[in-house]
Design goal:
CATH architecture of the largest domain: 3-Layer(aba) Sandwich
Order of helices and strands: EHEHHEHEHEHEHEHHEHHHHHHHH
Radius of gyration: 26 Å
Number of strands: 8
Number of helices: 17
Largest sheet: 6 strands, parallel
CATH superfamily of the largest domain: P-loop containing nucleotide triphosphate hydrolases
Oligomer: single chain
CATH class of the largest domain: Alpha Beta
Strand order of the largest sheet: 1-6-2-5-4-3
CATH topology of the largest domain: Rossmann fold
């Protein structure tokens, strides 16, 4: 086995027997820090932490010194924990000292190592994988974020609806720490209720750019005109650039058109949605929305989008009016206000 993913490790951690050596490696610092905390809290709970916990940076200590400390018995506790961060800063020869220790580790010490970048084929990593636990802390893909967000909400005794999870995932980018902070804020805000909704995300995330853009898109693709007008006004009032709102709407329509083409070619709706770029956990919702648009509507929409882009970039018309006209057009209303 070449290590286990952090999400698998976190899910199985309570049932795993403590290991003499852990290696947390990968580019997602949040998972590395969380993994170290999980192990330390479990092994040092109820003991005298300051006597049984040592933490070092690899740039400040040699492997021989680490193994010497690891062989020291714990004080009034079952375990001593020694953490060494960034062992990828050691030369390969330096890491060999840890390999020797792993062949006969102290039964009362847990050695925790971290590394951002490490060749998993190197003897150092393969030895840990055989004699300890190697945890791969890779950044999550966009498709994995939704499940992680729901898992985090569940840990706090909450559920979170798909729209709320989707917005958080789309806003996160690669900043998992910011995402964790948002979830913690939402949990506190929703302390008196079980479910976290899209409106909760909007209320808590007022200072996070992008929430209102998603509101605009959701109302448009659900063909909810009144809600769409309100969401558009909110987005513009909060300083969202009209062109950014427009390009987000355009991107979503491109995904819809691609999915429609895949369905026409024989793909199932959910499969087509995923292949078009929709996260799996939102595929069902996306498929339901797609049914609200005929193929003719989707194909004709790009003419309207081209006209809207020209007006936004080269017209004296107020951008809010230009976008409202687009919203009216998408929702199936004529200039007279009647549904077409």
């Amino acid at each position: 086995m070449a290590g286990i993913s952090y999400t698998e490790f976190a899910g199985r951690f309570k049932g795993l027997k403590p290991s003499p050596v852990y290696l947390f490696t990968g580019g997602e610092r949040l998972f590395i820090d969380e993994g170290v905390r999980l192990v330390c809290d479990r092994l040092l709970e109820g003991g005298i932490r300051e006597f049984n916990y040592d933490i070092f940076s690899a740039v400040d200590i040699k492997a021989s010194s680490v193994t010497g400390i690891a062989e020291t018995l714990p004080v009034m506790n079952n375990w001593r924990v020694v953490v060494v961060k960034d062992v990828d800063e050691w030369a390969s020869k330096e890491r060999e000292g840890i390999i020797s220790y792993m062949n006969n580790p102290s039964p009362a010490t847990c050695l925790i190592l971290t590394a951002a970048k490490l060749d998993k084929r190197e003897k150092f990593a393969t030895t840990i994988d055989k004699k300890g636990i190697m945890v791969l802390c890779k950044p999550l893909s966009k498709n994995q974020l939704g499940a992680w967000i729901r898992q985090e909400a569940k840990r706090s005794g909450k559920t979170i609806d798909d729209d709320a999870a989707g917005i958080l995932a789309d806003m996160a980018g690669s900043d998992m720490m910011a995402l964790r902070n948002d979830i913690e804020k939402l949990t506190l805000y929703c302390r008196d209720k079980k479910a976290i909704s899209l409106s909760d995300v909007t209320m808590v995330s007022n200072n996070i750019r992008g929430v209102s853009v998603f509101e605009v898109a959701n109302t448009i693709f659900d063909k909810r005109l009144k809600d769409g007008v309100r969401a558009l006004k909110r987005a513009l009032d909060e300083g969202e650039p009209p062109v950014r709102i427009f390009y987000f709407i355009t991107r979503e329509f491109r995904i819809m058109l691609k999915a429609a083409s895949l369905i026409d070619g024989g793909e199932s709706p959910d499969s087509a949605a995923i292949k078009a770029g929709v996260p799996p956990y939102k595929a069902g919702e996306f498929s339901r929305r797609l049914k609200k648009f005929s193929r003719t509507e989707l194909k004709s929409m790009f003419g309207r989008l081209t006209d809207t882009e020209s007006l936004l970039k080269g017209s004296a018309i107020n951008p809010s009016i230009v976008l409202e006209r687009l919203l009216l057009s998408v929702c199936g209303f004529t200039n007279s206000g009647r549904e077409s």
